Amino acid sequence: MRPTATAILALAVQSYAGLIRMGCSQLNIQRIDPLVTPGAAPSPHLHQLIGGNSLNITMNPATHDLPSLSTCTTCQAADDFSNYWTAVLYFRARNGTFHRVPQLAPLGFEGQAGGMTVYYMTGQLADLEQTNKATAFKPGFRMFVGDINAKTLEAALPYRQLTYTCLEEMSTRWPETKYFPTKPCPAGIMVNVRFPTCWDGVNLDSPNHMDHISYPESGTFESQGPCPSTHSVRLPQLMYEVIFDTKPFNNPADWPDDGSQPFVWSFSDTTGYGTHGDYVFGWKDDALQQIIDEPCYVNCQTMKMQSIEQMNACTLEPQVVEDIDGWVNEIPGQSMGMRMQKH
Ligand SMILES: *[C@@H]1O[C@H](CO)[C@@H](O)[C@H](O)[C@H]1NC(C)=O
Ligand SMILES: *[C@@H]1O[C@H](CO)[C@@H](O)[C@H](O)[C@H]1NC(C)=O
After folding, report:
1. Is 31 a member of any domain?
2. Which ligand has its closest atom nearest to the C-alpha of 28?
3. For every residue of the chain, which 3-state class applies, written as one string?
């Protein structure tokens, strides 16, 4: 019998020789972006942010040492004070008002307050002996992936592993699309953000926050694609899974009658092609390198763990306070964007 694609994918994941998978609850949801628009309060669009509580409007890499400035983290790994963030999803009702779509805890992390799942993958399907080592990110390392202005598949393709999964159930992992699901998804919409895995070995950041990193020259991280000579240092694959709980918004009678889908990113993208993710590294000492050298699959001896209660207890009051919940007439900061964009 021909195995289903879902079965193949599940097998592939189980065969990773090195993989950190951890839940991270919500630190806050607000309009700041210390990587792309440091100092701007509010930043152009709304984000959901997780990780260490030294998160701030400005995080100067020369002076802002995340592990020493943080007193807690929302991530399961107690030594991880990094910050991770993505945009936020909104539902647009027929009457033109918007409602923020809340996030759901992943399977196995029931009770986690919002947030997302973070992966660091090191070994690969075909590399069970870990001959191909990964080098952990260095203090001060930051990166961004995606193009918030992408409105077509062509524009989104360079960011080849930013995708959506329409969840039939919480464990659905296939297929993935580059655009928003076009039909109601019974268990929610999962946003998958896989960062590039090759580094130039020198620059901790770059003006567009992407030039210092690269996807493999050919293929993917999963298929053992080689890093280009300009970016020869192999990083772990950082991946986010963000599950948006679209269940309350799945009534076909509430969807546009022209057959389009009603979800919109907090930066006014109704296509989904503009999805993006941000990362500011902040693991304590060499904790990340130790874990990825172990190597281990989810249960890592060298990873200091905290409970879901401890993760949830780490929160940070938003510095930019505005009305983001309930039915709102405009997505925060987006009045012009939505008016200009054909729905
Ligand atoms: C954010 O930075 C400002 C200025 O350095 C500082 O006063 C404030 O305490 C910081 N906030 C947090 C939550 O760390
Ligand atoms: C707009 O539509 C939503 C969803 O049907 C509804 O809950 C809300 O009350 C409506 N708002 C207005 C101002 O009619």
Report:
1. yes
2. 1
3. CCCCHHHHHHHHHHCCCCEEEEEECEEEEECCCCCCCCCCCCCCCCEEEEEECCCCCCCCCCCCCHHHHCCCECECECCECCEEEEECEEEECCCCCEEECCEECCCCCCCCCCCEEEEEECCCCCCCCCCCCCCCCCCCCEEEEECCCCCCHHHHCCCCCEEEEEECCCCCCCCEECCCCCCCCCCEEEEEEECCCEECCCCCCCCCCCCCEECCCCCCCCCCCCCCHHHCEECCEEEEEEEECCHHHCCHHHCCCCCCCCEEECCCCCCCCCCEEEEECCECCCHHHHHHHCCCECCCCCCCECCHHHHHHCCCCCCCCCCCCCCECCCCCCHHHHHHCCC
Give ligand 1 pocket residues (Cβ under 6 A): 54, 56, 316
Instruction: Ligand 1, residue 57: give the atom nearest the CA.
Output: 1
Total domains in the chain come to 1
User: What's the confidence (pLDDT) of residue 133?
Assistant: 80
- The reply to whether 343 falls in a domain is no
Residue 329 falls inside a structural domain: no
Residue among 27, 56, 70 to mutate when testing ligand 1 (max atoms within 8 A of CB): 56
Q: Tell whether 327 is covered by a domain.
A: no
Proximal ligand: closest to the CA of 328 = 2
Using the mean position of ligand 1's atoms as its centre, give its distance from the Cα of residue 56 in Å. Answer: 6
| pLDDT (tens digit per residue) in 217-249 | 998 888 888 999 999 999 999 999 999 999 999
Q: Evaluate if pTM is beyond 0.90.
A: yes
Q: What is the pLDDT of residues 285-328, one digit of tens each?
A: 999 999 988 877 788 899 999 999 999 999 999 999 999 999 99
Which ligand neighbours the alpha carbon of 59 most closely?
A: 1
